[in-house]
Amino acid sequence: MTAEWAGPAVTAAIISSLIAIIGWLVSYRMTRRLETVRRDEKVRDFQIALLAEIRSERHHLATLDLAGDLEHVRAQYAAAEQHGRAYAPMVPRIAGPLVFPNVVKEIHILPERTIDPVVLYFRQVQLVERFIEDLRGERFRSLESARQIAMYADYIELMRYWRVMAEQACEALEASLGASRPVSSSASVR
C-alpha cells in the first residue's frame, strides 16, 4: 500500500526543503564563526594597541628620577627662601593618551580580567593630568612655599602610583594576550 500523495514531486519538494534547511544551518554556523573570529581579532587588536600606549608611558615613567626630583625642588625652595625670592617648580604637561579615548566606548569587549587594570591606569593618567594643571595654576603659586612643597610631594606620589598602575595594566594585557603577545622593538633587535 503506497501513499498516492508521496509521488516524485512531493519527494523532490521534501528533499529540496531539507537541502535548503541544511544550507541555512551551515550558513548560520559559518556566519557565527566568522563573527567570532572578527571579534577575537578586534579584542586582540585593542589589547595590543592599549599595551603599546601603556608601555610607551611606562618607559617614560621609568626614566624619571622622582625621588631626586623632589629633593631638587625642596633644595630650590630653600635656596629661594634664603635669597628672599619666590619659587615654583615648572611642571610639564603630559602627552595624553591617544588610543584609550578611541576604544573606551568598546572597552566592554576586552577580557574581564584586563578591564579593571586598564581603566585604573587611565584614571590615574587623568588624575595626574588634572593635578599638573593645578600645579601650573596661579592658585598654586599664591600658596605659601610649605604648602607648595607638600603638593609637589603629592604629585610625586601620584607619579609613583602611576608607574605601579602602568606595570599592572601591562601585566594584565600581556597575560591576556598570552603567546600571541606582540614583540617589542627593543626585544626584536637582540
Can you walk through the features of this model?
The chain is mostly helical and 190 residues long. The chain has one domain (8-189). It has 7 helices and no strands. The chain has helices at 8-62, 66-82, 100-103, 112-136, 138-141, 145-177, 185-189. Helix 4 (112-136) packs antiparallel against helix 6. The termini are far apart. The relative contact order is 0.13. Keywords: Membrane, Transmembrane, Transmembrane helix. The chain crosses the membrane at residues 6-26.
Topology:
Elements: H1 8-62, H2 66-82, H3 100-103, H4 112-136, H5 138-141, H6 145-177, H7 185-189
Keywords: Membrane, Transmembrane, Transmembrane helix
Transmembrane segments: 6-26
Number of helices: 7
**How does the helix and strand content classify structurally?**
mainly alpha
Low-confidence stretches: 185-190
End-to-end C-alpha gap:
83 Å
Radius of gyration, in angstroms, nearest whole number: 30 Å
Strand coverage percent: under 5%
Tally of individual domains: 1
Let me know the average pLDDT: 89
Q: What is the β-strand count?
A: 0
Order of helices and strands: HHHHHHH
Shape: rod-shaped
What share of residues is helical?
over 70%
Main beta sheet strand tally, sense and closure: none
Quick summary of this structure?
The protein has 190 residues and is an all-alpha fold. The protein has helices spanning 8-62, 66-82, 100-103, 112-136, 138-141, 145-177, 185-189. Mean pLDDT is 89; it is low at 185-190.
